[in-house]
Each structure stands twice: as C-alpha cells, then as structure tokens.
Amino acid sequence: MTLPVDLETDATRLRAAMAEDLAARGVLDDPAWRAAVETVPRHRFVPGFYLPGEGRNGQGLTRWQPVTARLDHGRWLAAAYSDATLITQFDGDEPDWGNPAERHGGAPTSSSTLPSLVVRMWADADVREGHTVLEVGTGTGYSTALACERLGSAGVTSVEVDPHRLERAASALHGCGHTPTLAVADGLYGYWPEAPFDRIVAACSFRAVPPALVAQTRPGGKILLTLSGWLYGYARVLLTVAGDGTAEGCLLDGTVSFMPARTHAAPAFGNPAHWAAELPGEARVARHGPERITAATEEAFHLRFLAQSAVPDAQLATVGDALHLIDVVSGSAAALTPDGDGGWRVREGGSVRLWERVERVLDAYDTAGRPGPETFTLCVHDGGQHLRHPRMPCLPLPTP
C-alpha cells in the first residue's frame, strides 16, 4: 500500500512523540523496545476503529462512532498514536470500514491494545533475543509487529480465532515487511506445529490456564496470561514451567483486563427477576456489602478476582438498587438489597450459597491483613490449578 508522503511524515513524528511519552512514564526502559515502538507504523494496523461519542442513546447505550482516515483524517491519525485501546470489532461482527456505521452498545470482541500495555506485556514476559514466542490473539497485528521488530519474524508465531481479523492483520504485517508464522486457531490449544516455545503471551483472558499452553512451553520457559471469569474479575500471572510439566508463578499487580477467549465467555442467564422470584422471602444481614467487589478501587479489582475463584460459575447483574448473583450451572442465586441504614440484606437460594461463599473469602482476606496480588501464587499441577497464600485458604480455579 502506497501512502502519501505527508502521512508518513506525520506518522513518524507522532510515533516519536508517543515513544518519548512512554519512556518518560517508565514504560520504555529497554532501548530495543523503544526502537520497535518508534519504527512500527500503528496506523497501518488500524484503518478503522470506534471511539465513544457524546451522550447515550434512548436505551442508555454508549454511542460508538467509527473513525477512519476518510471520515476524519486528523482524529484517526492522532488516536492511532495515542496510548489508548482502539476497539475494532463488536459482537464478532466485522465492520465495513469503507462505509462504517455508528454502533449503540455491544460487547467489544477485538481491539488494538494500548501501546504501553503491549510493551509492558512483552517486557513482563522477559522476552529477549533468541526466544521463540507464541502470541495468543493476533488482533490487529500491531503487537505482533513489535515482537517481529524486536526478535525477527522467524521467532514469532501468532494465532487468532477470527479468520477475518487474521486476514487484515496478515495484510498489514506483510505490508510492513514482517513474515511471522500466522494461523487461524483457538489459542486455548496453543499451536502444536511450532511448539515448543520459550515464551507464550496471551492477549485474551482465560478462566484457567489452558493445559496445552503449559505442554507447549519449554522447561524454564514462561507463560504470561490474564485470568478472568464470569464475575469479570481479572488477574495477570507469570508462570514458569518446570521439567515435570507443572507450572507456578505469582500474580502481578495492576488493574489490567482483557477480552475473554470466546469459548470462555460468560453464558446468557436470562431475566434477573425470574431468578429473584425463586428466592426465599426471608433475608439475613450481609456481613459484607457488594461494594467490596464492585467499587472502582484497586483493592476491589483484586477482591473481585478472589471472590470469583470461590463462585466461578456466578455472574453479577444490577437491577435498580439490588445486586444479583446468578449461577446457571448449579441453578443458585442470591439477591442483595440495601437496608436503608447503610447496610445490606441478602436472600439466597439453590444448592450453593453464593454470597456466603464470597463473604468467607472476604473474611479470610481481612484476617490475612488484606494481602496484595503479588503475594498470591498460582500452582498448576496434575491435581488442578490452585491459588495459594500462606495466610488464606486455597482457592481452586475452574477445571480447564
């Protein structure tokens, strides 16, 4: 693709400014990664994306405005070189960027991750020259291009479950002179033809560590991925794989979240009112309110993941002032309502007392001194996957 000289000149200037900003914030300590950021033209990987518009529609849904060079060249190029995540797809529907339309609401299913996080991921995984790397989730291909620039294309394999996404990414990568191994494949199963790998880095999240990723990592190799679940609790973990096929690693700090692998996405649960109608009429006083896991704080972000480990099949729904926990696997449910005095009351029904399980985790967390994520270790052994802490009960992850 031949681009106007002024576009390339402007893009070069904006790349340099973005790299300078990331370096000033301590993101680009490695000169090799900085050189990659200054070289890879991100705008070629995002010919179109969505940005939130002003206000909401009549149903209260976010208005997502399409942004392309044809619609608004300046806005498109400035956003391409901003440290922001750019949504490129909703609900698995591939947009027609030649004639894009505004979207109302929807679940993002593909994006170009903000550059600071992309670089942080490669750095956190301790990716170095000579490593062979598997990237799970090619997306737009921008992250893949940075890895190719740093390691050379021969050391990079990237898989993407969406064939349309991969086709666009491959075109952009090849147009920039990068020829990594690309494949349409479900990252849940890694990519056996190119295994084993020194490093595996996932740009999507999983409910538990996929066993195939552990099996495809060389002894001493590392896996960086984000764990998530149906409560939308997240935790990043860096695992080191041992010679016996087990893996262990500490959770990493921060509030990073990724879209779930499509086969790990939460199922629809129906109408919360139907679930609440089946609950017993008598309510008890809740020992902890839902704000412990829903507040916009780092501690609540961490606690939501711990709580999710105790009720892995539960989902949250808010209706008015009430918060509902719904478990489509066991058929259990709980409803929390404010009591008017700053406290909460809870009704629970089914074989699993969902909020009681959450409260036990919160009790243990408080008793342990409210430990941070980096004090927890994830152990992946033949017996399953468990989150361990020296002062808290073991928390199992869902069976992969």
Give a verbal description of the structure.
With 400 residues, the chain is of the alpha+beta class. It folds into 3 domains: 82 residues, no CATH class; 143 residues, Rossmann fold (3-Layer(aba) Sandwich), CATH 3.40.50; 101 residues, Double Stranded RNA Binding Domain, CATH 3.30.160. Helix content is 28%, strand content 29%. It is built from 11 helices and 20 strands. Strands 8-7-6-9-10-11-12-18-19-20 form a 10-stranded mixed beta sheet, with helices on both faces. The protein has a 5-stranded antiparallel beta sheet with strand order 13-17-16-15-14. The two termini are 43 Å apart.
Notable characteristics:
400 residues; alpha+beta; Rossmann fold; Double Stranded RNA Binding Domain; 3 domains; 10-stranded mixed beta sheet; 5-stranded antiparallel beta sheet; 20 strands; 28% helix
CATH class of the largest domain reads Alpha Beta
Summarize the main sheet. 10 strands, mixed
- Helix and strand content put the structural class at alpha+beta
The CATH architecture of the largest domain is 3-Layer(aba) Sandwich
**How far apart are the termini?**
43 Å
Strand order of the largest sheet: 8-7-6-9-10-11-12-18-19-20
The tally of strands reads 20
What does the overall shape look like?
Answer: globular
Helix coverage percent of residues? 25-40%
Report the CATH topology name of the largest domain: Rossmann fold
Mean pLDDT: 93
Assembly state here? single chain
CATH superfamily of the largest domain: Vaccinia Virus protein VP39
Tally of domains: 3
Query: What is the percentage of strand-forming residues?
Result: 25-35%
